[in-house]
Amino acid sequence: FLYKCHAGIYSRVLPQSNPSAPGFNLMQLLNKAPAGLRPAKGRGCAVPVPRIGRVKATVFATAGATPASADGSPRMKEGNTASEKVQQKFLSFIKSEAPREGHDPSFLINSKHAKECGLKPKAVYRNLPVGQLYEMALRYEPGTHITSSGALATTSGSKTGRSPKDKRVVVEKDTEGEIWRGAGSPNYEMDDSTFLNNRETSVDFLNAVDRVYVVDAYANWDPKYQYKIRIITTRAYHALFMNNMLIRATEEQLESFGEPDFVIYNAGAFPANKFNQFSGNSTTSIDVSMAHKEMVILGTQYAGEMKKGVFSVMNYLMPKRGVLSLHSGCNVGEKDDVTLFFGLSGTGKTTLSTDPRRPLIGDDEHCWSDEGVFNIEGGCYAKCIDLKPTTEPEIWNAIRFGTVLENVVFDPATRVVDYSSDALTENTRASYPIESINNARVPCVGPQPKNVILLTCDAFGVLPPVSKLSLEQAMYHFISGYTSKVAGTEMGVTEPEATFSACYGSAFLMWHPYKYASMLADKMAKNGANAWLINTGWTGGKYGVGKRMSLKNTRAIIDAIHSGELASAPMVPSKYFGFMVPTKCTGVPPEVLNPEKVWPNATEFDKCLKDLAVNFQANFKKYADGAKYVGDDMAKRIEKGGPSV
Hints:
Mean pLDDT: 88
Number of domains: 3
Distance between the termini: 89 Å
Number of strands: 36
Shape: globular
Family: Belongs to the phosphoenolpyruvate carboxykinase (ATP) family.
Keywords: ATP-binding, Decarboxylase, Gluconeogenesis, Lyase, Nucleotide-binding
CATH class of the largest domain: Alpha Beta
Structural class: alpha+beta
GO molecular function, one term: ATP binding
Radius of gyration: 30 Å
CATH topology of the largest domain: Phosphoenolpyruvate Carboxykinase, domain 3
Pathway: Carbohydrate biosynthesis; gluconeogenesis
Region (Disordered): 148-167
């Protein structure tokens, strides 16, 4: 019986898939057992237990056992009720004493949110060090490898990007009238009952798997505005990712962490029910409840959903506290002059904000408070398609041990990554702690911004390389979030196509865009910050005719902004849009500053410029209900900043 008990406990508590689990000495357990369970002298027989995995011991049969059978296991007397009771007592005793996988789960199962939802995982690993997360990912997650740089390469399954159409924000009494709904809004509705059903599904899955990983960490570098975030996931890769992306807790902070302010249940390996009325017939569901302070992920293993989930929550909470949350890059000069960079994919936000001469506060998510700016995150999530050490050395050098490389392709023999390959997806990513950037400013906080730069990649080639904006224009173009698609970037795109994303991050907004824009203008006015629109797109004609704006010229323009040269440069107004366009800039040919002068046909230029202005006006109609969020006067100021045709 003891042999079987030993083997059974080993298989249940110390599964052979976990070779690092320690063995245990059954003789020592017997000596610790209550008197009624210890073998009486002369009553038992020695039973040699063969080696089972890493466990080897000599076991004595308890009272009621007969000599061992041929297979080495003790035979129990039939019908011996007393002996059966002894067995059950011994089984309970040995299960309580045997070593278990994972950490003490009491911090989790005794928490308020776990009691409410019934979360009781089989094994819990909390805030594992990077090396152990590597080991767990390599052991349990197929398709995970160590690359030549020391980074961990892994895959996110069938979903290699975010699923914005599957994001749901629960309709709740306390938040309605605040959460942006309707045309253009990313916040699709879900009722509380369906949210709780999805949470139950996720918790059932988390309880059923062999182990879960918990990351307890923080959002926001300013302690005054810090929030405790708890991530519960089934993949070590996800835990390592969020360990990189959030602000890591010290051992002392973990001891006093207490109840989290927000919890993410990541059961992305399990599909959502596509038949509920809010599913849109999708098996993916990313659900946010501000009342429950929870987020549920089902049907996608793409790690970016967790990062952007936290950002969405901050986009709701921070404006309520008078703090503006921003989808932006941020760096600071030697004179403590802070610059914010806004831009959609392909505009150069990461490249231009990551400047070796200016310490990086952050590459993607920030807040602007009365005290200054601070990063929301503790890491970076950089696109690495076509990454080269010559063009982006800071990112290249950051990819090392501790970095997660998501959906990249590498040589199976040398493990050298092919950053030019989009075989799995064009959206290849690298996640690393911000400390991996050599000139990162840690803690990631800074004083009040002096410059706000809106980046656009204008493939029509009609916007100036740099324009100075009024406060009204800054609000209008911040809300517009304009860039353009070019042929080859998406299926079916053969001509340049205007695209807009409110506040340069529409998918993550919780309030109406007018709310964020009015806060931006207020903070700029209070701190005397200048706003600039920089075109990193085409010049001398539209895509296919002209050429891409040189990075050298763009960097020279940004240098002139930082030095103060452009703020005092002579300027002329632009047609239709009314921007103030500098006529001189050190390091930039004067004709380049005026796009009309480098076009081959002035009439064609005017037509393209006018068409683009009309596109802006048509896009802005979806925000016509903004006045109810900021008042009529502010709404009129915002609309005044648009083009006139």
